[in-house]
Design brief:
15 strands; 14% strand; alpha+beta; 532 residues; eight-stranded mixed beta sheet; elongated; 21 helices
Length: 532
């Protein structure tokens, strides 16, 4: 296959934001038409570089001149238009108003100088003209062009990063929803990655350090380490022709859905609202089509129903609701559950400040002894724990003192933890958690205690009494820490997520857990001052 060569029409490098400088008349061997703006070429010295497509032109030359640095011109094959062709290629430097035009904006040169005109850039990112779109389609369909590879995209990302020209580089959470063809993905967990936008593609790296490390040493290969295992992106998504849908009703915030036939369906979550807007802007500019949240089939069918059918359905529903028994009569037939009922309603039903189940099971645990190794850390038999839950929900009598029935203390501790986890609102209410977490982040223990004390004192009465009762029990457990191996820090790790949580969990759940653990640790150490 004959080699293709390109010739530089203009100087490039003066004032350029990125790319390798070159001179007018330099000749390069064309390796690949990377995209609609940049081509991959090779110098005479075998250096691989990228050149802007608008600054070069494919010419029918025999070889790369031996001394391109000395302004040598390429040898042109004979043709019927050789004179005109040569006159355009080998022309003397031109001046405008006594100033050389080399390195000027191509749009200025094309409007002021004879010779091959270079059209000005006619669009901004995401706003391509019809001519550019047709040219891109022609290049994409050419036999010499191939789809972007992970290696090319990665090298392009490193080049843009080294010149501070990357438009989007943010940490995200990614979830694979479906594979190409509609088959569900086996790996459907959310994973944290580093997202980079390059040439209508999203590249996903393991983290920011992996991406910046390749930039720092300027190469994608290290001795003895394969590229794809360490340096290259773990995956990439082609945006052109994709569909973008904003997921508004998901429990996670700032989520977009991307889908196409080649890459399947993925969900991406940005950490902040500003990063979410940048992500949404770039995926739509990258060639993706934004669609509204689709309605369900039932809603779609309802729009097609005529007015007469709507009236019939309405009358039937009204008749059904009139025959429905009142709520009071249904409540007498169905027993209220115990697990999963708000703390305030339980205490109101039992006319107490602490749920009776909490009192009874903690007393039974303390009678068994708190010196067992790993108490509260070890899990009891799950079926036995659920058996306790079922009996309590059905208002059956549970004698936790009967060791023949409840012989494993870990079953009792597991039932207590399950009860606390299933409260609709935890022992420490949602409204109080942010203030307590902020206080825990203060520098000294004295400042931390001063910050949490007024918040604890303002808790609702049932929450305050239940929290005090549980913490007093846990202090007795930690007092035997040398025997049961459950020091204050160990207990805090177990009960931090159990006694408090946010109504909507944030993306940075790991740090939230650290703060909650520190809060329980502080309350146990300062128990006597806190509830004096």
């Amino acid at each position: 296959m004959p080699m293709a060569f390109v010739v530089a029409l203009f100087d490039y490098g003066e004032g350029a934001t990125f790319g390798t400088p070159f001179k007018e008349g330099d000749v390069f061997r064309l390796i690949e038409k990377t995209n609609e703006e940049w081509w991959k070429v090779e110098r005479k010295d075998k250096t691989i570089m990228y050149v802007p497509k608008q600054f070069v032109e494919i010419r029918d030359v025999t070889s790369i001149p031996s001394s391109p640095a000395n302004n040598a011109r390429p040898t042109v094959r004979s043709s019927s238009t050789s004179d005109t062709h040569t006159s355009k290629l080998v022309r003397s430097p031109t001046t405008i108003g006594g100033m050389p035009t080399s390195g000027m904006n191509p749009a200025v040169r094309s409007s002021s100088v004879s010779g091959p005109s270079l059209p000005p850039r006619r669009y901004t990112l995401g706003e391509r003209s019809s001519n550019d779109v047709s040219e891109h389609a022609r290049l994409s369909s050419a036999s010499s062009d191939v789809e972007e590879t992970t290696e090319n995209l990665h090298k392009r990302a490193v080049e843009l990063f080294s010149t501070a020209a990357l438009k989007l580089a943010i940490p995200v959470h990614k979830k694979n929803v479906a594979l190409p063809g509609g088959k569900k993905s086996s790996a459907r967990n959310w994973i944290q990655l580093y997202c980079v936008y390059v040439d209508r593609h999203l590249l996903f790296y393991k983290d920011k350090k992996v991406f910046e490390k390749t930039k720092s040493h300027g190469s994608v290969r290290r001795k003895g380490v394969p590229d794809k295992e360490k340096d290259w992106p773990s995956s990439h998504f082609h945006l052109e022709g994709s569909t973008v849908q904003l997921i508004l009703d998901h429990k996670r915030k700032n989520v977009v859905e991307l889908s196409n036939d080649k890459s399947g369906v993925i969900w991406i979550q940005a950490d902040t609202a500003s990063q979410y807007e940048e992500l949404r802007k770039h995926v739509t500019r990258g060639g993706s089509r934004l669609v509204e949240n689709t309605c369900s089939e039932a809603q779609g069918d309802e729009e097609e129903v005529d007015d007469d059918e709507k009236k019939v359905v309405k009358k039937k529903l009204q008749a059904f609701f009139r025959r429905r028994p009142p709520l009071e009569s249904l409540q007498s037939m169905v027993k209220d559950q115990y697990f999963g009922v708000p703390l305030e309603r339980l205490c109101e039903r039992e006319r107490s400040q602490i749920p009776q189940f909490v009192e009874n099971i903690i007393l039974a645990i303390e009678e068994r002894g708190l010196d067992g190794v790993g108490i509260y850390r070890l899990s009891g038999n799950a079926s036995q724990v659920q058996k306790i839950r079922f009996k309590i929900d059905q208002e059956e009598v549970c004698d936790f003192q009967n060791r023949e029935v409840w012989d494993d203390i870990n079953v009792l501790t597991g039932a207590l933890k399950l009860f606390l986890r299933e409260l609709p609102e935890p022992v420490i209410p949602y409204a109080s958690l942010d203030g307590l977490v902020a206080a825990v982040q203060l520098p000294t223990d004295a400042e931390k205690f001063a910050g949490i004390l007024p918040i604890i004192k303002r808790l609702p009465a049932v929450n305050y009494s239940t929290l005090q009762f549980i913490l007093a029990h846990l202090c007795r457990v930690s007092a035997l820490g040398e025997t049961n191996k459950m020091m204050v820090q160990n207990i805090a790790i177990v009960f931090g997520p159990t006694m408090m949580r946010k109504e909507i969990e944030s993306c940075n759940l790991a740090m939230e857990m650290v703060y909650r653990t520190s809060l329980v640790d502080l309350m146990l150490r300062e128990y006597w001052n806190l509830f004096a």
